[in-house]
Amino acid sequence: IAGINLKLSKGATAAQGQFFGVLDIAGFESFEHNSLEQLFINLSNEHLQLHFNNHVFTMELEDYKADGIEVANITFPDNSDVVELLDSKGA
User: Model pTM?
Assistant: First the structure.
């Protein structure tokens, strides 16, 4: 990533601000001290991950099946139960 950003920045001014980054949205992070702000960040990332999983895995597999294309079953981590718990108002 640093090499890509170095190439992107050649000849660019700071105001142009071109860069390449990676967002890791694969799970909840655990720090020694988690703040409420970090919980909100993690929860937002989990919502993005669920959206991604639904569109890339679930919906694509349904399309393949509808088109009669045989595809091996794909399993992936699903944290929807944790997201639903944190999104709920409680009892």
Answer: 0.56
